[in-house]
Amino acid sequence: MSRRVLRNIFGVVALPLLLGGSTGPDTPVADAAQRRDIAVVRQLLRQGADVNAAQGDGMTALHWAVRHGDIELGRTIIYAGGDVHAGTRIGRYTPLHMAARAGDVGFVTLLLEANADPNGMTTNSGATPLHLAAASGDPSVLTELIQAGATVDVKESAWGQTPLIFAAANNRVEAIRVLLSSGADPSITSGAVNVVEQSEADRAAEKDLSEFLAEFKEKEGGGTDWQPAPSQVQAAILASREIQRKWPDVPSADGDVKEEDEEGEGGNEDEAESEAQLTKDKPVEAEPEEEEPKPLSYAHLVGSWGGLTPLLHAVRQGHMEATTALIDGGADINQPSGGDQTQPLLMATINGQFDLALMLLARGADPNEMSMAGTTPLFATLERRWAPRASYAHPTEHEQQASTYLEVLEALLAAGADPDVRLKTHLWFMEYTFSVLGRAGGANLRGATPFWRAAYALDVDAMQLLMDYGADPNIPTMKPPQRRRRADPDEENTEEKNKEVEGEESQAAEETEELQEVEGQVEASVNPKMANAEGESAATETEEEEAEEEDEKDYSGIPPVSVGGPSVYPVHAASGVGYGQSFA
């Protein structure tokens, strides 16, 4: 057994013994307050015990008084000098945070009178007492905090959510009304995430993490069994997280930020002159062919998410009362998210909140608003009813609604919803695994209409309803860009060599090839069963290759459909396109 293993085993065994032999901080007042023993607390304070001595997790006697909701105990501790600004070890939650979260207006008033900070933020999420009070929903607590100077539209640091968003997400109607009457802005959105940039940052961070550990290994001369120390792993993780945090403003590997105008004297001018000189005597090349479009990556399919308003939060959760209070208070019923431009009506239908969708429609929501992907409430209603098995959790709220999906479809169509709107991209949330990007169930949905989706689901009732409102049953999806096959390196090398050969060298090469071909034919005639490296005869391998080439030939004489052209028609969708290729 190696010394390293022995040291590790010793550390694991000895740690509990060391911890068991250690003693925690001496906190008799906090301990008594935890037991809610006010008599002992008073006795300890008379004896001069430290009223602010915190337990291991940062809880003080005042925290425990708030936790128990014991106003008398709280007054005693504050009178003795209890610190109203003391914070817990994790998050630095003050007594006022705890009182606001509990909706304890008596304690909130007591703490504010003792000069507690109504705008104090926790260190783990940046939440203020007003955020927590909005979530708990007691309007009197919010009123006390606002009158004491709490900022109404303050954003917490984790997601950029305001107190109004907290209240809306938790269906706190009275809290919503207090906040709106105090000037809260219902149009403020939470933070949005650009998935493309995030994906690039994650790749860069992962690369940096690997390079960081490789550098440690190189410095220590590690072999194949080398393992990084915990401190080295921690340092590498911190470095990679710094890249994610600062992306895209990240310096290069040598610590310099690359700028085109900082490349020395002359810079771009010298570079341009050099390029001109180098290309002066070269023949003019033909214009490069237009690059073929590439399939969208997963990050590009998602695009962006987040950026929700208070109304979108309420709608997503199906909170009818909160939604009504927000609209009555001036929230824009059609304001899209700051992420993928999802509007409230689309948010309701895509989450199966059908009853709420009908209410929004009745109050003037636009039935033709769409997301960046081109998803409309009409398509979303069908998608929710016939949601495929996917890698993502699909809401099931539509199963608990008083309204059916057909009623929602008809209401949308009656309100003027366009039945022929086509999706702009494939829908990422229809994928079962990342390996089938671009084809859920074997079909890419770019260009699909609500009628196409109904046909794919074999939903005859929906198909008939859509046609009654003028839907075109002949609109296909659009042909997506195809993934490029990797070129055969042997073929590439052969092409490059053929291009380099000119004049007599080309003629000599051709003569050599002819000679080799003749020799090969003679050798094959002498030993026709000569095997190749795979144990197959050369004749058999050639025949298979010829058969494959024959299968790939297109004898139709019809030119191939270009990218963006017609792909899968509704009749194909109904006949079972892609069935058996996924769980859609």
Keywords:
two-stranded antiparallel ribbon; mainly alpha; Serine Threonine Protein Phosphatase 5, Tetratricopeptide repeat; single chain; disordered N terminus; 584 residues
Characterization of this structure:
This protein is mostly helical and 584 residues long. Among the domains are: 24-187, Serine Threonine Protein Phosphatase 5, Tetratricopeptide repeat; 192-250, no CATH class; 333-468, Serine Threonine Protein Phosphatase 5, Tetratricopeptide repeat (Alpha Horseshoe). 49% of the residues lie in helices and 1% in strands. The protein contains 27 helices and two strands. The protein has helices at residues 3-21, 28-34, 38-46, 61-68, 71-79, 95-102, 105-113, 129-136, 139-147, 163-169, 173-181, 195-220, 230-246, 267-280, 298-302, 310-317, 320-328, 344-350, 354-362, 377-385, 405-414, 450-456, 460-468, 489-500, 503-526, 538-552, 570-575; strands at residues 192-194, 304-306. Helix 12 (195-220) runs antiparallel to helix 13 (230-246). The longest helix is centred in the middle third of the chain and has 26 residues, at 195-220. It starts with a helix and ends in a 9-residue tail after the last helix.
Q: What is the CATH topology descriptor of one domain?
A: Serine Threonine Protein Phosphatase 5, Tetratricopeptide repeat
The CATH homologous superfamily of one domain corresponds to Ankyrin repeat-containing domain
Rounded mean pLDDT is 81
Instruction: Give unreliable regions as ranges.
Output: 1-22, 254-284, 435-441, 501-506, 517-538
State the secondary-structure class.
mainly alpha
> Level of helix content?
40-55%
Would you list the SSEs in sequence order as H and E? Answer: HHHHHHHHHHHEHHHHEHHHHHHHHHHHH
The quaternary state of the protein chains shown equals: single chain
- Major sheet description: 2 strands, antiparallel
For the biggest β-sheet, the strand order reads: 1-2
